């Protein structure tokens, strides 16, 4: 069984980019959310990873932060302004957005030639969606051939399930499209399972077919440790520990089961680092 080392794959991608001419453009990131909120804190953590890679590559990175009190119209104007700026070569709108915004309307405001996440149909004329690029990287690493295989996609979200399902259509022997409310046990017939639900421990090893591979994009921050009700009431953040979990509960792999899986991506350290590296590959493609 192969544990997919996402950090190693990401390092190889970044290493190849370092050999290429550096785009003389800036990468702009848009973050919307009230300071101090859990959502904003998580989003800033993800953006710091992207900023660190930008520094490694010598690419200018600028974060544009807006409080969630900004109106939808004003936010759209700001995003369009970034799209018209000749010094900016790529734009990230960090998701999720606060619930009161029309996500699709805001995303369509991104200049499609600068949408390095490939979040809209128009931008996908130029580059692959990030999740699709990650799947390609992993399948290449494992030398996995799709043509005769049954593939299950669990989750139908904008970032993972939807673009991957569209890409897989016609490329694999059989495609199963599931969500968290489907009969999840149908994944037992799949040679490859790709999941992006964001529900910790949704998929157990015994639910998978012998010899199957699993690519896990899901992530959930789950509280752990010995916090008490009093801790919760007092909102003692330092006493409440959180750990990142994926949809696949690989902690349940035991010696008698390890031979049954071909490969899996751990969380953290699996798909996440590759996603960040692919952002910069897209940035280079759009500015070559």
Supply database-style keywords.
single chain; 288 residues; Rossmann fold; 33% helix; globular
What does this structure look like?
There is one protein chain. The protein has helices spanning 6-18, 38-57, 72-84, 103-107, 130-142, 161-168, 229-234, 271-286; strands spanning 2-3, 26-32, 61-66, 88-93, 150-154, 174-178, 192-195, 212-216, 220-224, 241-245, 261-264. By secondary structure, it is of the alpha/beta class. A six-stranded parallel β-sheet has the order 1-11-8-7-5-6, covered by helices on one side. It is globular, with a radius of gyration of 20 Å.
Radius of gyration (Å)? 20 Å
How many E-type strands? 11
Coarse shape: globular
Identify the CATH class of the largest domain: Alpha Beta
Strand content: 15-25%
Q: Give the total of domains.
A: 2
Note the main sheet.
6 strands, parallel
Considering DSSP H and I runs of 4 or more, what fraction of the residues is helical? Answer: 25-40%
Through-space gap between termini: 38 Å
What structural category do the secondary elements indicate?
A: alpha/beta
The unreliable regions are 226-240
Set down the secondary structure blueprint.
Blueprint: E1 2-3, H1 6-18, E2 26-32, H2 38-57, E3 61-66, H3 72-84, E4 88-93, H4 103-107, H5 130-142, E5 150-154, H6 161-168, E6 174-178, E7 192-195, E8 212-216, E9 220-224, H7 229-234, E10 241-245, E11 261-264, H8 271-286
Helix pairs in contact: 1-8, 2-8, 5-8
């Amino acid at each position: 069984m192969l544990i997919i080392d996402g950090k190693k794959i990401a390092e190889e991608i970044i290493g190849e980019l370092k050999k290429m001419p550096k785009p003389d453009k800036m990468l702009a990131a848009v973050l919307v959310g009230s300071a101090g909120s859990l959502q904003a804190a998580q989003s800033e953590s993800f953006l710091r990873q992207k900023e660190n890679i930008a520094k490694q590559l010598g690419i200018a990175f600028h974060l544009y932060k807006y409080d969630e009190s900004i109106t939808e119209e004003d936010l759209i104007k700001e995003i369009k302004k970034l799209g018209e700026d000749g010094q900016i070569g790529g734009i990230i709108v960090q998701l999720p957005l606060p619930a009161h915004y029309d996500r699709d309307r805001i995303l369509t405001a991104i200049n499609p030639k600068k949408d390095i996440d490939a979040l809209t149909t128009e931008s996908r004329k130029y580059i692959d969606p990030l999740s699709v690029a990650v799947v390609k990287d992993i399948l290449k690493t494992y030398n996995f051939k799709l043509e005769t295989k049954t593939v299950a996609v669990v989750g139908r979200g904008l970032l993972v399930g939807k673009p991957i399902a569209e890409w897989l259509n016609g490329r694999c022997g059989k495609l199963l499209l599931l969500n968290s409310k489907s009969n999840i046990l149908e994944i037992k017939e799949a040679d490859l399972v790709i999941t992006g639900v964001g529900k910790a421990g949704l998929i157990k090893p015994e639910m998978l077919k012998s010899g199957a591979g699993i690519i896990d994009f899901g992530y959930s921050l789950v509280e752990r440790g010995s916090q008490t009700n009093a801790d919760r009431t007092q909102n003692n953040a330092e006493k409440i520990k959180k750990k990142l979990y994926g949809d696949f509960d690989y902690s349940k792999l035991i010696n008698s089961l390890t031979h049954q899986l071909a490969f899996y991506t751990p969380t953290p350290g699996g798909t996440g680092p590759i996603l960040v590296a692919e952002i910069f590959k897209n940035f280079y493609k759009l500015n070559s």
